[in-house]
Amino acid sequence: MSHDLPLYQPAAVRAAGDSGGCGVVPARVGPEERHLARALLDRHGAVVLTGHDTTADALVVAAAHLLGGRLRELFPLRERPSRDAGPVHLHADSFDLVVDIGGVQRRWRDPDEDYVLVQCLRPAPRGGDSFAADACRFVDDLATTAPELHDFLTAADVDLYGAWAGLRGLPATPRVARHVEHTRAGRRIVRRTDGAVPLHRDPRADHVAAMLDRFTAAVHELEPALPRFRLDEGDILVLDNYRCWHGRDAHHGERLVRILTLRSTDAR
């Protein structure tokens, strides 16, 4: 595999669709070429690692190999079974969840999980293909195609998880943030969560709610034109969760994935 292996579709192919050049097709890296995986992830925001066993420690080992000394915090592994399921829309993994274990509060999920690893344990017999988008490119395009939405995403504060305020373990304190922000290390964050709502008693609440609906519609409209790729058994999709959104198509039959989210040393 060459360091110049393109991650994105060729420009002529991108121009034929409506994805605006945001579509991502991760390079597939086998066990003998894993030294390239870190460079590809840093350069393009996504990579697929092939040839892994489906053991519970595969994701942890892969994260350690990829990030090395940049690895700061791992969150609990979680499995996602689905059967005859509808699509999962483009999103960035993040949540704000604290639990009590033996009288000690532990953070179970974090709003600033900056990398996510998804391993296919059992692919669906029909459907279930994955798709991904470069969210930074999407936002940059909005500056020209939808400047009002661009201004909202970059300048308006929202409550990121307010739609789920009744969930046990979710802190009562609103998580106030903008959809597009930067870390102290200079990394750009482009958030995508279904939990965002206007701040309590925000005088522009109606406008914020309308813009959130417009944002969701724009993301959903992007999805059909994105290129698809399939995860086979054992494949691990690794994403820069600040930069790339991901989703999957509807599927028939059973599908099972295991997910690991984490924070690196240059997370917010």
Automatic annotation (TrEMBL):
Keywords: Antibiotic biosynthesis, Iron, Oxidoreductase. Its cofactor is Fe(2+). InterPro entries: AlphaKG_dependent_hydroxylases (IPR050411), TauD-like_sf (IPR042098), TauD/TfdA-like (IPR003819). Residues 29-256 form the TauD/TfdA-like domain. This is TauD/TfdA-like domain-containing protein. It comes from Streptomyces synnematoformans.
